[in-house]
Amino acid sequence: MKRMTNIQVQRRIVAVFLCALAVVLVILIRLGYVQFIWSDFLVEQAEDLWSRDIVFEPERGKILDANEEVLAENVSAPTVMAVPRQITDAEQTADVLAKVLDMEKERVLEHLQKNERIVILKPEGQKISEEKASLVQSFNLDGIYIAEDSIRHYPHGAYLSHVLGFSGIDNQGLTGLELMYDELLRGKKGSLSFYSDAKGKRMEQKADKYTAPVDGLDLRLTIEHKVQTIIERELDIAEEKYNPDGAIAIAVNPKNGKILGMSSRPNFDPANYQEISAEVYNRNLPIWSTYEPGSTFKIITLAAALEEDVVDLENDEFYDSGSIEVGGTTLHCWKRGGHGHQTFLEVVQNSCNPGFIVLGQKLGKEKLFSYINQFGFGEKTGVDLQGEAKGILFNLDRVGPVELATTSFGQGVSVTPLQQVMAVSAAVNGGYLYEPYVADAFIDSVSGEVVSETEPVLKRRIISQETSAQVQEALESVVALGTGRSAFVDGYRVGGKTGTAQKVGEGGRYMENNHIVSFIGFAPANDPEIVVYVAIDNPKNTIQFGGVVAAPIVGSIIEDSLMALGVPRQEEGIDKDYQWPESPPVEVPDLVGLKKEELQQYLMSLQADVVGDGEYILDQAPKAGTQVEEGSTIRLVLGNK
Questions:
Q1: Torsion over CA: 166, 550, 627, 630 (sign)
Q2: Looking at CB atoms within 10 Å, which of 192, 444, 581, 598 has the fewest?
Q3: Are residues 485 and 605 in the same domain?
Q4: pTM (predicted TM-score)
Q5: What region, left, alpha or beta, does residue 336 occupy, with left being phi > 0 and alpha being psi -120 to 50 degrees?
Q6: In the annotation, is 295 catalytic?
Q7: CATH code of the domain in which 340 resides
Q8: H or E element at residue 439
Q9: What string of H, E and C letters represents the secondary structure of 411-436?
Q10: Residue 53 Rama label (left phi>0; alpha psi -120 to 50; beta)
Q11: Catalytic residue among 51, 295, 486, 556
């Protein structure tokens, strides 16, 4: 038998000891790692298993106009939540909830018996009224909780609907600004966490943990509430009067790209979007629709010709016979028989197609299309709204004499309304092309502090100040003396241009008696504060000309908007050339102090509405010196001195 020496025994003891020590060290290191490194994670995991969360939705940020008028807000709409394992009598609970929430009892039971930690009684129990929520609470049902929630409210109904968009039942943005800035508007959810055992019973010894929701930021827009209201009013009137297939209106500040108002028809109430076709609420026409612009596009040809010094508007002359032959094709003027002998300023005033064709020929296709691109056509404007189109231009390699000619007067190209507005803004603001925008600033809903603010983005300068001033003067003469006379506003210098665009139908042929008539105007003409574009698609029971249908609408929008914005009236400017059946305005005489029998000799062109008794006129409205339309009524107050 082999005997072990003391040395061997000692070695084995040491080896066993070292192994044991290593095991102990591993255990200690593992315990230390778990205790100090993993402890928070494991506690969280355990709490997740024990905890039940009642979610508290944050307040979605409000959307405000430029003067902080509320355009979209939230109203309280609580939600019923159930913890199935805490329900002691499912039958009775289901019976009560079915009656209060107007649900089938079987469906309530189905929710209450789900093998889930927390169940929302969708959809009847979601976003209910305060009255229903109070009634549910009054029954003190085990396992039934009321979570604070809200629903989106649009106080002005269909007002600005395509721009605002709408949010869904879970407060997520679905269209418009609600979708574009959803992450900032939405905020972060909060919760009330309580602890329960494996059977779902509440652990009273553990304190509840409340995490407050973080409300979303408020969004202040560039939209001026008064301007938007005027636009909505005018489009409602146009819709009633002309029964069009559609209508568009945009107003911008040409000095910085701020959108002051935007609307289209048909529109919708964001609160009831489920009742509307997606074709209506998904199409924000001012940025989505594309069509041939017609004569409003001539402003670009005019600006390019003036900048390149290929025309002198007052001294260069043109004879319009009513048509012009280009590349073997005869192109006609809108006026049968033509305008005859004209200066090129009169070509602009009369919107003479052959005259603009000549300007395009003088520029050449490379120059003209270079300016078209510089003015932003063929690319998106960059507006902070979804669904923007970029339009269609001729490929320069495929532009021949006919394509050059038609492009010169706005046919054969496809643009968006917003592209036209920003391009014309650049033509009249000194040559600066700005990126349009709607979101002006984000504001902390609690402190009221501005978190971020949008700065105007200048994309490029296209023409000189001198050229821009010439464009201003030429377009002011269009309104005072030419085809845009219906947009003339007494007391404000208005410039603008009419447009009558043909629509392309099936087979690529132009449609008969179906046009998009438009007008783009700006004021004051010598220092523009606002540019307004209106387009009416296929107006019924009227002559389909931009000067007849759209120009008066733009004139009304400009006049009322400038007054709302506090822009003072002007005395200078080009006097309007009144043509039959138009008549010049009449100045209201000073009638205060006159005797009643003297009225007749002062009111030859006006009517009087007299109130009160007495021999003398004590007050009048409007005041003396005011310009009014012939036949207007003057209100007079009678009394005795």
A1: negative
A2: 581
A3: no
A4: 0.78
A5: beta
A6: yes
A7: 3.40.710.10
A8: strand 439-443
A9: CCCEECHHHHHHHHHHHHCCCEEEEC
A10: beta
A11: 295
